[in-house]
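INTERNAL AUDIT FORM
Audit reference: QA-55
Scope: verify that the stored structure record matches its stored sequence.
Auditor: D.O.
Record contents follow.
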Amino acid sequence: MLSVQHIHPEVDLGTATATGNRYCGLQQDYLCVQEFYTKEEIPHGHQQIFIAAVCDGHGILGDKSAAYAGKALCRHLYSSTLRNKKLSALPQEEIATHLKDAFHAGHHAAMSLYDHPPCRTAYATHGMKAPQEFDLIKGVEGGFLYRPTTGHGHDKRLECGCTATAAIIQGRTVSIANVGDSAAFVGGGGGASAPCHSRPITMRHHGLNETEADRIRQAYPGSTQVLHDAVALSLAEEQGEADNTSAIVIFFH
């Protein structure tokens, strides 16, 4: 599904998402495009500021993790001191600080699920024909597990998290940050003499990216194993499986 907003005479902003079929159509992605001002609030000589965010959840509470993180991230930016300022006139370090603080707010919101998990949730794994309900129980060795409500099937650990990609846009000025592998693209063209084209403007953080894998090993030596799951991904694709996929799209005319 593609959602697009015309935000400037020369710019369109949107989010794109595909649910996939790996988890029986269960959508664990959170997407948001939010305006800073109402039409009447835009300061004289300024343009509207937009916030765009995509969070891709994983684990049994992945949908909630993505929603908690995405909403907290956007709320932090919306209430920040970026209001009434021109992005093009700000130092890059100031915008980077706002984005970093917003990501910390999103992280803390997502982690709060471990302190207050829901008593019941729905989840689907490989081979299921439909999402299944799970009830929260206390594990034998401490911590929490989710057990199928029907009593049939395997317990699931209380485990969740999400990616986060966020952009702040004002006119043709774009500031972007990301953690994980949710992408943002910038595109252009579309006229009779200039066909549409696009390119990613984020780096995907996962084990198949050697630069990211090396960073993780150096940051956590001896305590982290980076799994290269290219074979598993290829096999899933051959079997017709597709995961949730979402992205931010910024299109310049």
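Auditor finding: record pair retrieved intact. The longest helix spans residues 92-111.
Action required: none
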